[in-house]
Specification:
Elements (H helix, E strand, L loop, with lengths): L1 H20 L3 E2 L2 H10 L2 H12 L5 E8 L3 E7 L5 E7 L6 H8 L12 H21 L7 E5 L2 E5 L2 E2 L2 E2 L10 H20 L13 E3 L4 E3 L13 H16 L8 H9 L1 H4 L2
Parallel strand pairs: 1-2
Antiparallel strand pairs: 2-3, 3-4, 4-6, 5-6, 7-8, 9-10
Helix pairs in contact: 1-3, 4-5, 6-7, 6-8, 7-8
Bound molecules: adenosine-5'-triphosphate and magnesium ion.
Magnesium ion (MG) binds next to loops.
Length: 267
C-alpha cells in the first residue's frame, strides 16, 4: 500500500517535472489535479509520453466528465487547439462496451481484460472518427491514440466547445434544414463510411452556429454488426424525436428503407 502510494507520487512528480522541462504550459492547475486524481498511473505515463513526443504543448481545462470518459482542452506544438478524450479504466462500463466490440469484425479478436477492451474502444473511436471524416462527414479528425487516450481536433472557439445541439437554440424556422442535413449524414455514414453511429442524439451533435458536427463515435459499428439495424433505427428515432417540435419529420421506416436500400430488404 505504502509502496504503491510512493510510486504514484513519484510518477506524478516525474510527470510534473517533465511537463515543465518541456515547456508545456499547464493553463489550468485544477485540470492537472483532476487528471492526477481520476486516472491511474499508467494513464498519466501515457499522457506524459504525448507531451514528450511533442503532441501537446498546452494542457488546458476540463471540458467534460462523462459516464466513461473525461475530455480536456489542449494545444499542439503549433498552438492549434486539440481535445484529449481519456477513457477511465476504473469506471468504464465494460459489459456495454463489449457488446459493441463483439460482432464488429474489425475488433472481433478483442475479448480480453477490461483494460484491453477499453484500449480497443479507444482505437475503435479513433478509427471510426477517421473513417467518417474521410467520407466527408463533419466530425473531429482523430489525430492520435495511445492506450485509453485519444487526441482529436478541437471543435469550438476560444477554448470553449461548440454547444451540443440540445443547447444550440435552434429556432423553428431553421429546424428543417438541420434535420435534413443530419438525416443525410446518417445516410452518408452508412453508405459512404460504412458506419452506424449507434448513439446519435442531440447530446452527441455539436452546433457551430451554422452546421452540425457529429462526435462521440466509440460505439459506432459497421453495417454487418448483428445489431446495426437496431442501432440505425434508434438513431433515426432519436433525431426524429428531437426535431418533431421544430420541423416536419419524415416517417422513420421510409428513411430507414432509403438508407439501407429497398433491394436489401427483399428476402
Ligand atoms: N473534439 C471535440 N471538440 C470540442 N469539444 C469536444 C470534443 N469532443 C468532445 N467534446 C466535448 O466533450 C463532451 C463529451 O464528449 P463525448 O460525447 O465524446 O464523450 P462522452 O459522452 O463523455 O463519452 P461517453 O458517453 O462515451 O463517456 C461533448 O459534449 C463536448 O462538449
Ligand atoms: Mg457523448
Amino acid at each position: 500500500m505504502v509502496k504503491l502510494k510512493l510510486d504514484r507520487d513519484r510518477i506524478i512528480e516525474k510527470l510534473d517535472r517533465e511537463v515543465s522541462k518541456l515547456g508545456v504550459r499547464i493553463k489550468d492547475a485544477d485540470s492537472m489535479k483532476v487528471m492526477e486524481n481520476v486516472f491511474d498511473d499508467q494513464t498519466l505515463v501515457a499522457l506524459y509520453k504525448l507531451v514528450n513526443k511533442g503532441k501537446l504543448s498546452v494542457i488546458g481545462g476540463s471540458i467534460s466528465t462523462g459516464k466513461e470518459a473525461n475530455v480536456f482542452y489542449a494545444e499542439d506544438s503549433e498552438g492549434a487547439p486539440v481535445a484529449i478524450k481519456i477513457y477511465r479504466i476504473q469506471s468504464a462500463n465494460f459489459n456495454t462496451m463489449n457488446q459493441y466490440l463483439v460482432g464488429d469484425p474489425r475488433f472481433s479478436s478483442v475479448r480480453k481484460s477490461k483494460k484491453e477492451v477499453i484500449f480497443a474502444w479507444t482505437r475503435k473511436e479513433y478509427s471510426n472518427l477517421n473513417r467518417a471524416h474521410d467520407a466527408g462527414i463533419r466530425c473531429p479528425k482523430a489525430r492520435y491514440f495511445d492506450r485509453n487516450i485519444l487526441l482529436m481536433d478541437f471543435c469550438g472557439e476560444n477554448e470553449i466547445p461548440y454547444p451540443q445541439l440540445r443547447h444550440a437554440g435552434i429556432e423553428k424556422g431553421e429546424g428543417q434544414k438541420h434535420y435534413d442535413a443530419i438525416i443525410h449524414d446518417i445516410d452518408r455514414m452508412y453508405n459512404d463510411a460504412g458506419l452506424v453511429h449507434a448513439d446519435l442524439s442531440e447530446f452527441n451533435l455539436l452546433f457551430d452556429g451554422s452546421e452540425h458536427i457529429i462526435i462521440d463515435m466509440g460505439q459506432a459499428v459497421t453495417p454487418d454488426h448483428p445489431r446495426a439495424v437496431k442501432f440505425l433505427v434508434r438513431d433515426i428515432l432519436n433525431i426524429n424525436r428531437f426535431f418533431a417540435r421544430l420541423c416536419d419529420i419524415r416517417d422513420e421506416e421510409e428513411i430507414f428503407r432509403e438508407i439501407i436500400g429497398e433491394d436489401k430488404l427483399q428476402p
